[in-house]
Design brief:
- The structure is a single chain.
- Helix 1 crosses helix 7, helix 3 runs parallel beside helix 4 and helix 4 packs parallel to helix 5.
- This protein folds into 2 domains: about 220 residues, NAD(P)-binding Rossmann-like Domain (Rossmann fold); about 30 residues, no CATH class.
- The model has no long low-confidence stretch (mean pLDDT about 95).
- The protein has a 7-stranded parallel sheet, sandwiched between helices.
- The chain is globular.
- It is of the alpha/beta class and about 270 residues long.
- Helix 1 links the parallel strand 1 and strand 2.
């Protein structure tokens, strides 16, 4: 088995680090011994708050904050350049920012927003950091997708399609850059209790199936230790994916039945 990623002493960057899974990841990386964690978020104040909380907990002050729009390729490139110049070589990037935009088929704005954040942001991050990692023959990129990227989300086409695309991108990167000494992981959680969680998710789903962001962060750190590609904080997603691949027609019919059960009023209308 390939040697796992060494968090201790590393410089790590987390996008979408101001809340949810990103915030939990920043804290987990600092606790695991990262030399420096750069908390990036579209909301500068949220990133500042997370970095301040981490620095208050550790005398070595291992965090800093950066406001970053991950949909801006030039801004992402500048951010990585600044971090490498002022802090050190980036060994780990957790490309974690995401949105759940739109309803049903969605409108053009929901599709643009979903693709910009849930797919193209990962492209921008990969383009900025992977050439540097390849030159050093080391590094790890973590892409946060969703169980919807392996299965679907029948409530929201832009989310389901953009997360499927994120999984495909992660697979492509893992294949293409393996010989460069770079590992890629793709995180596909099911329900997680974050600010992005839709109210109807908890109302119609099993509340005890929803993990805390800290649970997902622990699963990601476990994957780093083994350089594992697919990270499934909800192990049952693997079973669902196997059923889908083995008999697509039956899986589709079961998903239709679930949709009818969970959204009877909408379906009837």
């Amino acid at each position: 088995m390939p040697e796992g990623f060494a968090i201790t002493g590393s410089v790590a960057v987390v996008t979408g680090g101001g809340s949810g899974i990103g915030r939990a990841l920043c804290h987990a990386l600092a606790q695991a011994g990262a030399r420096h964690v750069v908390v990036t978020d579209l909301g500068g104040a949220a990133a500042d708050a997370v970095a301040a909380a981490i620095n208050a907990a550790y005398p070595r002050k291992p965090a800093s904050a950066m406001q970053l729009d991950v949909t801006d390729a030039a801004a992402v490139a500048r951010a990585i350049d600044t971090i490498e110049r002022e802090i050190g070589p980036v060994a780990l990037v957790c490309s974690n920012a995401g949105v759940h935009a739109g309803e049903g088929l969605g409108d053009a704005d929901a599709w643009r927003r979903s693709l910009d954040v849930n797919l193209l942001a990962h492209v921008h991050v990969a383009g900025a950091v992977l050439p540097r990692m390849a030159a050093r023959r080391s590094g790890h990129l973590v892409i946060t997708a969703s169980a919807a990227g392996l299965l679907t989300d029948f409530r929201c086409a832009p989310y389901a399609a953009s997360k499927h695309a994120a999984v495909a991108l992660a697979e492509w990167l893992a294949i293409t850059h393996a010989d460069d000494g770079i590992a890629v992981s793709c995180v596909c959680p099911e329900g997680v209790k974050t600010g992005m969680t839709r109210p109807d998710s908890i109302r119609t789903g099993a509340a005890n199936a929803f993990l805390a962001p800290e649970d997902v962060a622990r699963a990601i750190l476990d994957a780093l230790a083994t350089r594992r590609f697919l990270v499934l904080p909800h192990p049952r997603v693997a079973d669902y994916e196997q059923r889908r691949a083995a008999d697509r027609e039956t899986w589709l019919e079961r998903m239709r039945a679930v949709r009818r059960k969970l959204t009877p009023t909408r379906v009837a209308s």
